[in-house]
Design goal:
There is one protein chain. With 338 residues, the chain is α+β, with helices and mostly antiparallel strands. It has an 8-stranded mixed β-sheet with strand order 1-2-3-16-7-19-5-4, with helices on one face. Strands 11-12-10-15 form a 4-stranded antiparallel β-sheet, covered by helices on one side. It has a 3-stranded antiparallel β-sheet with strand order 6-17-9. The longest helix is centred in the first third of the chain and has 22 residues. The radius of gyration is 20 Å and the shape is globular. This is TauD/TfdA family dioxygenase.
């Protein structure tokens, strides 16, 4: 199926990224010649129009051959969609700020897989749009797999989905101690008073432990409704925070050190305090795997996601790989105003 923009003088064409059964789209120049600095602006102008027309349905747009790999150009491209780029507050993974709203992607070792997730769905404020730019494509692997969060929601067993929806989720984080991200990195500050104010404004319960470390708890949504489309989406990171996400030997070692599951670096339970069974988590992970699609990165690619409609991941890789990220359009959960 070809969704080429109809007029012959159009600069780009739109085609399915994976196949007719998937919503995600690929946008490429109609002219096979590499775009020049003089043509980028025209491509970007069309890209903005295409995004406004297609992103709410497609959930994911891959811009290919529209610009060279350049972090400054990428920042300009992402900002050209009309919203200010936002910071990475209340972080859960290590990243490096490149500057002016651009960050490196999660800096985990190359051999590790990062499972599917919607960015910052473990909290009550998240970006609605997110961009990934491939500055250096890996030698092998290193894809950023994606999945339709509407499809995930529909495939989750109704009994599990209803329990998650009704109860919500409480995430516990125990920072530092060499086991997880230091609180100074997670909040981007060493000022405890600033952290206290942030937590109070975002319904996060925080406490300082005797050894000077920080523990936070926040009760959040398990599913969400897209503010523009009205679609219900699976929107949480329970499968990442649940103890069953840890390899058995790692879990046993950590429990021997910290003493209980809720003292682990990360933990999740239902919002009423009851534990989530491992069978439910196994089912959720199976659905996520079934919905996953991936494409190989090419240097210069820009992937634009509606963060509520599309989850993303990272595959292991070899060779150098540099992906930078930008985010915009913060969404505040209705729980913050209740």
């Amino acid at each position: 199926m070809n969704l080429a923009i109809g007029h012959a003088d159009r600069l780009v064409e739109v085609t399915p990224l994976f196949g007719a059964d998937d919503e995600a789209l690929q946008i490429r120049p109609r002219n096979e010649a590499a775009p020049t600095p003089a043509s980028w602006r025209g491509l970007w102008d069309e890209a903005q129009g295409l995004a406004s027309r297609h992103l709410r349905q497609a959930g994911a747009l891959l811009f290919r051959d529209c610009a060279p790999p350049d972090e400054t150009l990428f920042r300009t491209f992402a900002a050209s969609f009309g919203s200010s780029l936002i910071g990475y507050d209340f972080a859960s993974t290590p990243r490096t700020a490149v500057g002016d709203g651009v960050y490196t992607s999660t800096e985990y070792p190359a051999h590790q897989t990062i499972p599917l997730h919607n960015e910052q769905s473990y909290t009550l404020t998240w970006p609605k749009r997110i961009w990934f730019h491939c500055v250096t494509a890996p030698q092998s692997g290193g894809e950023t797999p994606i999945a339709d969060s509407r499809q995930i929601f529909a495939r989750i067993d109704p009994a599990i989905r209803e329990e998650f929806t009704a109860k919500g989720l409480t995430y516990t984080r125990n920072y530092g101690n060499g086991l997880d991200l230091p609180w100074q990195d997670a909040f981007g500050t060493t000022d405890r008073a600033s952290i206290q104010r942030y937590c109070e404004a975002n319904r996060i319960v925080c406490e300082w432990t005797p050894d000077g470390e920080l523990r936070t708890q926040q009760t959040c949504q398990a599913v969400a409704r897209h503010p523009q489309t009205g679609d219900d989406v699976w929107f949480n990171q329970a499968h990442l925070f649940h103890p069953s996400n840890l390899p058995p030997t790692v879990r046993e070692t950590l429990l021997a050190v910290v003493g209980s599951t809720r003292a682990l670096p990360r933990h999740v339970c239902f919002g009423d305090g009851t534990e989530i069974c491992e069978q439910a988590m196994s089912h959720v992970r199976q659905v996520l795997d079934e919905c996953t699609r991936a494409f190989p990165w090419r240097t210069g690619d820009i992937l634009m996601l509606d963060n509520m409609l599309t989850a993303h991941a990272r595959a292991p890789f070899s060779g150098p790989r540099r992906i930078v990220v930008a985010m915009a359009d913060p969404v505040r959960s209705a729980l913050l105003s209740s």
